[in-house]
């Protein structure tokens, strides 16, 4: 056991105290079960560039019939015919080149959610590029500066296009991070609205109430699949990179109440790890966990979705749903390693004298009595940008006096949450619960341009809950 690094003390944790036999082997010494993630893992994109520091891929958006629910074919909107789109995996500092082709019947774009990349690569039609028309092409080319879990999706008619299946994971590793966090598994969560024939429902289904509540799909998917099976070995840890790519749905996931170690999320590791007993993740957000399989060899269980209270009607009369089988193989248990509490240093941003902005998330109705949302009462089409300068730090208070929670997302920059107080970490998406507020600090480190911030319930962004930030070049 002493062969582990100094911080890898042997754990015989209280929650494993119920084990009948103390396992002999450590988690780091044994492999995952054979084909442990074969049914779940998202296939990576094919790298056409031999340079190990460059990931160069062809990505094509097109409609492909797929069997989402048994016996029915659904015309899914895909990247490269995959649901979700291919896994893009790089190391921090690597270059990503994506030769994108739009073979959809409508215009689109790709937004690289959470990445601190140049404005021209941010994928927002009308602001950073023209829409990519059907048959059109665009090359995205940038350095991925930060380790973390990210994702990509259209920023054109995004509620509809994301709802139809256009999303994919992007993972940036820090080669310096301990491998002892476990073998990586991306779990991209999404849902899809299908009718009785398995056809995609109209993006505006449900009318005004759909706009107000946001549209949750009827079919829950993990990596594009209904109830896939993951194989685990008791005590053998896995690092789960969880992405909420649903257009509206909030997730509370539990494997009974088994503990998970939360490492961080959007912008990589937090300052400290925390032990939690559920995964709570809002649209757009990412979380990074160490899962330690708790069950006895030869048993099986299910990861379950539970409704999250995000306002009126969100929990009423709704049942939990199973989303993934977890089969514990019949191999001897192993002793899990201890995850350190201190993960990295994150210095608080200096907010002395910082310019402050109040962003009040608002819901109203327009002249046709349709739902109209905004920020400070202004629909995004009439929004005046917040002004900032490269090098400046600002403090934003995002206030929500509406009857629904809103996941707030800022493009292009990480922020730190000042209140409610928590473990220091870098974020780009944060839930602002109903009748609550979140205060955040953001430094516009570089990369001038026009950037978006919006509610990541995409139905809400679509009806106006979005604003603009104009970062001017420095002196
Ligand atoms: Cu919202």
Question: How would you concisely characterize the structure shown here?
Answer:
With 475 residues, the chain is mainly beta. It has helices spanning 158-163, 207-213, 458-462; strands at residues 25-26, 54-66, 74-79, 88-91, 95-102, 111-113, 137-143, 148-153, 168-173, 183-192, 219-222, 229-232, 238-244, 251-254, 260-265, 268-276, 279-281, 286-291, 299-306, 321-328, 334-335, 355-365, 371-375, 386-389, 393-400, 406-410, 415-419, 429-432, 436-443, 449-455, 466-472.
Descriptive key words:
single chain; about 475 residues; mainly beta; Immunoglobulin-like; 5-stranded mixed beta sheet; about 5% helix; disordered N terminus; binds copper (II) ion
Strands, helices and their partners?
Blueprint: E1 25-26, E2 54-66, E3 74-79, E4 88-91, E5 95-102, E6 111-113, E7 137-143, E8 148-153, H1 158-163, E9 168-173, E10 183-192, H2 207-213, E11 219-222, E12 229-232, E13 238-244, E14 251-254, E15 260-265, E16 268-276, E17 279-281, E18 286-291, E19 299-306, E20 321-328, E21 334-335, E22 355-365, E23 371-375, E24 386-389, E25 393-400, E26 406-410, E27 415-419, E28 429-432, E29 436-443, E30 449-455, H3 458-462, E31 466-472
Parallel strand pairs: 1-21, 2-5, 4-9, 10-13, 12-20, 22-25, 24-31
Antiparallel strand pairs: 2-3, 5-7, 6-8, 8-9, 10-11, 13-18, 14-17, 14-19, 15-16, 15-18, 19-20, 22-23, 25-29, 26-28, 26-30, 27-29, 30-31
This protein binds copper (II) ion (CU).
């Amino acid at each position: 056991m002493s062969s582990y690094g100094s911080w890898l003390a042997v754990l015989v944790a209280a929650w494993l105290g119920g084990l009948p036999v103390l396992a002999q082997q450590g988690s780091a010494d044994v492999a995952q079960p054979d084909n442990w993630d074969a049914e779940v893992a998202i296939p990576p994109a094919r790298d056409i560039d031999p340079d190990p520091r460059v990931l160069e891929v062809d990505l094509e958006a097109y409609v492909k019939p797929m069997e989402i629910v048994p016996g029915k074919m659904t015309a899914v909107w895909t990247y490269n015919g995959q649901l979700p789109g291919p896994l893009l995996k790089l190391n921090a500092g690597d270059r990503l080149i994506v030769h994108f082709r739009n073979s959809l019947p409508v215009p689109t774009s790709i937004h690289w959610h959470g990445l601190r990349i140049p404005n021209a690569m941010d994928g927002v039609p009308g602001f950073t590029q023209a829409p990519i028309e059907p048959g059109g092409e665009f090359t995205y080319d940038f350095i991925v500066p930060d380790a973390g879990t990210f994702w990509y999706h259209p920023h054109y008619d995004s509620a509809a296009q994301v709802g139809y299946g256009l999303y994919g994971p992007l993972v940036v590793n820090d080669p310096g991070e301990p491998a002892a966090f476990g073998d990586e598994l991306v779990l991209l969560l999404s849902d899809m609205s299908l009718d009785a024939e398995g056809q995609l429902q109209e993006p505006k289904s449900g009318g005004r109430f759909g706009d107000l509540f946001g549209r949750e799909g009827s079919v829950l998917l993990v990596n594009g699949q209904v109830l896939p099976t993951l194989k685990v070995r008791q005590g053998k840890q896995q690092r789960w990179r969880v992405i909420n790519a649903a257009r509206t749905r909030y997730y509370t996931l539990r494997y009974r109440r088994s503990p998970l170690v939360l490492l961080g999320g959007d912008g990589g590791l937090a300052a400290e790890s925390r032990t939690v007993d559920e995964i709570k993740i809002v649209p757009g957000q990412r979380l990074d966990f160490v899962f330690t399989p708790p069950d006895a060899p030869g048993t099986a269980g299910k990861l379950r979705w539970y409704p999250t209270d995000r306002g009126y009607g969100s929990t009423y009369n709704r049942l939990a749903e199973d989303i993934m089988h977890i089969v514990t193989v019949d191999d001897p248990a192993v002793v899990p390693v201890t995850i350190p509490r201190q993960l990295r240093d994150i210095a608080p941003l200096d907010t002395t004298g910082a310019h402050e902005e109040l962003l009040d998330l608002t819901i109203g109705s327009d002249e046709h009595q349709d739902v109209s949302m905004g920020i400070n009462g202004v629909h995004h089409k009439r929004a005046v940008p917040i002004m900032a300068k490269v090098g400046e730090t600002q403090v934003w208070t995002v206030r929500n006096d509406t009857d629904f929670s809103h996941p707030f997302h800022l493009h292009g920059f990480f922020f730190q949450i000042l209140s409610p107080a928590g473990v220091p970490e870098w974020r780009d998406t944060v839930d602002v619960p109903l009748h609550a507020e979140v205060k955040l600090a953001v430094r516009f480190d570089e990369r001038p341009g026009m950037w978006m911030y919006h509610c990541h319930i995409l139905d809400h962004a679509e009806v106006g809950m979005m604003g603009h930030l104009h970062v001017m070049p420095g002196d």
